Amino acid sequence: MTRMTLKAWIKTITFYDLLVGMKATMSHLLHYRPITLQYPHEKRTLPDNYRGMLALLRYDDGTEKCVGCDLCEAACPSRVIRVVSAEVPDQPTKRYAKEYYMDMTRCLFCGLCVDACPVDALGMTREFEWAVYDKRQLHLNKDQLLAIGDRSFSACEKPLELQHQNVAFFNVAFAHLPQKPS
Amino acid sequence: MTELSLRLAVSLAQIVAVMGIVMLTVMILTLAERKVLGWMQDRMGPMEVGPYGILQPIADGLKLFFKEDIVPAGANKAMFTLAPILAMVPAMIGFAVIPFGPNVTVNIFGITIKPFVISDINIGVLYILAFASIGAYGIILGGWSSNSKYSLLGGLRSAAQVISYELNVGLAIVGVLLLSGSLSLVTITQAQAGGFWHWFIWGARPDGFFPIHTQIFAFVVFVISAVAETNRVPFDLPEAESELVAGFFTEYSGMRFAFFFIAEYANMVLVSCVAASLFLGGWNAPYPGTILGYAGLEQLAWVENVAWFTLKVYMFLFLFFWLRATLPRLRYDQLMRFGWKVMLPIALANIVVTAITAYFFPR
User: Fold this and answer.
1) pTM for this structure?
2) Three-class SS state of B336
3) What CATH architecture does domain A54-159 belong to?
4) Do B39 and A29 touch (CB under 8 A)?
5) ipTM of this predicted complex?
6) What does the pLDDT look like over B295-327, one tens digit per residue?
7) Bridge partner residues of B198 (DSSP)
8) Phi/psi of residue A42, nearest 5 degrees
9) What is the distance between the alpha carbons of residues B93 and B114, in angstroms, rounded to a whole number?
10) What is the pLDDT of residues B271-299, one digit of tens each?
11) Residues of A with CB below 8 A from B325's CB?
12) What are the structural domain ranges in chain A?
């Protein structure tokens, strides 16, 4: 039996500690400032570097940026991406993604594919409301990904060969370079 | 014969009115609890159904009404059906002796009735305690008949808890019964007329101010035991979510679950009414008489009295919510130790002290 001091005893019989807690809850009731948002009606402002839904991008002339290099597929830790690469018809030095699939059921939104892309053909939008009733709807093809990019990124870059003359070394057909024998 | 049928009709009308008020209060409570808890936790509470979520109880009621009624395999069907009724009926029936307003009599069609109490029987408090005990059977049977380990444990805990704390409730009100010399809630409330210093929580004699008969310890014991008896936080061990899923009504769904739910809230209202009547002067205003009575509107004085009673009851109900928002759940051994080794000695000592003071300073 430990001896109680008089002060501790008085605190016990008057439920002092309980009253401190009840004062805290009452002060929250009196200074009522909710920190929650009514989600579907009001939404948080997202941070600038928010990593949302993935999208494929275009240049400002409407051509796809993707060069079908498969680096995103290699970088992806969850095997979300599958790229089927092919030559651009009539332009033997250019390649593009003939088919491009993303299985968004597995994506963990790490952004490694965006970092890996050498031509910045992938982007992360600010979309996050992608709940669906059938998860097959989350297997996206190239057209769907391009559509997401079109509606999320209104400003497009110029084609690579117009941006800098000396960087586009592997995917651009320059007139003075020998053409790939067809 | 006509007088008998007339009395029956009047009583039925009173019962319907009281049941309606109680059910309305329960509806308000389900919303008020969620709102108050939300506000205390920096949330908004229900906001979707109707403006500021005020239609939420109706939505909840409709949902429960249309939900599938599941009886688990292996459950004792008769007991499983009986348990919710056995929980809800005693909670409702206790309101028969609660005086909601002043003890006036009205003559209609040649018979004399008391409009604010259904039945002013002379064993009112005992009647409420007896039916509160029967309500515990509903919980225990519901836990046992569900054929589920969580339900069974919840029911067993409830049995032990209700028995422990009913004792304290019974002993806490003995002081009040000694002072008022009656078991009728109407007589007890009338004995506290004439200002808040005559309420039994303060306990001044009818001719003085000094709190010679104060029942404040009995009041604290009663309130704590009432919280425990209605299975509310921090004594909600029978339905401890984190340990027992939902306790004794784990297997219940639809209207059967709603019966347990209504029973819990009706019990809250009932103990609040009893606490207000026994300790806080019931319908009496905290000043002598009524303002409307002084203003010459004797006919409307009952409005003020009923308003005071309602205010006191809602104050207790708010205390229930406040405790729920603040306190964590007690451990089982803490609950038992607190009930038997702290509350019980205080209640017994209160009886002794009250008996001595009531003997030497009779009211």
Assistant:
1) 0.81
2) helix
3) 2-Layer Sandwich (3.30)
4) yes
5) 0.74
6) 877 778 888 888 889 999 999 999 999 998 888
7) none
8) -135, 140
9) 18
10) 999 999 888 888 888 888 777 777 877 77
11) 25
12) 1-33, 54-159
